[in-house]
Write a structure and sequence with these properties.
The protein has about 325 residues and is an alpha+beta fold. It has helices at about 5-10, 60-75, 95-110, 160-170, 175-190, 195-200, 215-225, 240-245, 250-255, 275-280; strands spanning about 20-25, 30, 40-50, 80-90, 115-125, 125-135, 150-155, 205-210, 230, 265-270, 285-295, 300-305, 305-310. The chain contains ten helices and 13 strands. One of its GO terms (biological process) is thiamine diphosphate biosynthetic process.
Length: about 325
């Protein structure tokens, strides 16, 4: 199967058909109609075999994950996901693999109301790069730079499940049948908190998604906002599956630095805390206050209740 037949067969119809795509796949470039009064938000994420996924991964789950992790970045900025571009490097043409991958990608793009509008294919070691574009009302994008001394630090959902899932697929741990499905789902099929991210536009002072581990990702907000933070590790939200599957110390390590949770980490000024629960309650996603921003620039402190908690590892590093 040649390059153009490959594109046509697997990707030409990927995702929801959007009325704001004037020209999509099939030309030298896509033509998009960006809504008046909106800013364009663009993010890029790459996944490389052997680094981000294993050779025997289910290609359908890989298609899902590629979309979800990109859309998660848009969610963290309060943006509405709209359009996707895909750069696909393949060692060979495997029709069964490509079909399953494209199905996972298309289903997930459709779920988030996105359309695949173009990209590129080439030969080489298996790697996947996606560019996701979204829109946000002008001036309303949430950044990492707005946290202020005294703000409260929140996280959505639960932390650590994906890290445990990675250990499970590597056969490094055993998990009871009761919890295996949940843990594997969290690892292979992450959920981007899109609706909740949009609801935070007028509440959060800063935000990002948790991709490389809470401890490491928090440093990005501290550096960009020029603040510090104190996190109470007793308040970190963990699923019952995680707590039942390992001891308390290991569960805490997974929650602090495991990565790939794709939950939203955000700060809220004290005068907006009252609005938070009311505005977020319709989304059915738990939100937990885990700490507070301080004026100690760049200082990441942990406590356990009222006692200091020493923790060194700070998440995944690419280099």
């Amino acid at each position: 199967m040649g390059e153009f037949e490959l594109i046509q067969r697997c990707f030409a119809e990927a995702g929801r058909k959007r009325t704001d795509v004037a020209i999509g796949i099939g030309d030298d470039g896509a033509v998009l109609q960006v809504r008046e009064g909106c800013d364009l938000v663009i993010t890029t994420d790459s996944m490389v075999e052997g680094i981000h996924f294993f050779p025997d991964v289910d290609p359908r789950s890989l298609g899902h994950k590629l979309v979800a992790v990109n859309v998660s970045d848009l969610a963290a900025m309060g943006a509405e996901p709209c359009w996707l571009s895909l750069a696909l490097t393949l060692p060979k043409v495997d029709e069964a693999w490509l079909t399953a991958f494209a199905e996972g990608l298309s289903e997930t793009a459709d779920y988030y109301n996105c359309q695949l509008i173009g990209g590129d294919t080439t030969r080489g070691p298996l790697s996947l790069t996606m560019i996701a574009k979204g829109v946000v009302p002008k001036g309303k994008a949430i950044t990492r730079a707005g946290a202020q001394n005294g703000d409260y630090l929140y996280v959505t959902g639960t932390l650590g499940d994906a890290a445990l899932g990675l250990q499970l697929v590597q056969n490094k741990v055993e998990i009871s049948k009761k919890h295996r499905a949940h843990i594997l789902q969290r690892f292979h099929y992450p959920t981007a908190r899109v609706a909740l991210g949009q609801a935070l536009r007028n509440i959060a002072s800063s935000a990002m998604d948790v991709s490389d581990g809470l401890a490491g990702d928090l440093l990005h907000i501290l550096r960009r906002s020029k603040v510090g933070v104190v996190v109470d590790v007793n308040k970190l939200p963990m699923s019952q599956a995680l707590k039942d599957s390992c001891d308390a110390e290991q569960a805490l390590k997974y929650a602090l630095s495991g990565g790939e949770d794709y939950e939203l980490l955000f700060t809220v000024p004290e005068n907006r805390r009252g609005s938070l629960e009311v505005l977020l309650s319709p989304y059915g996603v738990p939100v937990t206050c885990i700490g507070r921003i301080t004026g100690a620039v760049g200082k990441l402190e942990f406590k356990q209740g009222e006692q200091p908690f020493v923790y060194q590892h700070q998440g995944f590093e690419h280099f």
